[in-house]
Amino acid sequence: MAPRRKRAAAAKSTETAVKKAKPEESTSTPRKAAEVHSGLCELAPEHKFQLVLNEDGKPRRGAFEISIAKSKDGDKVLVWSGLSKGPPRKDKFPEPKTILDDVLKVLKK
Question: What angle do CA 51, 84, 82 make, to 5 degrees?
Answer without folding.
Answer: 15
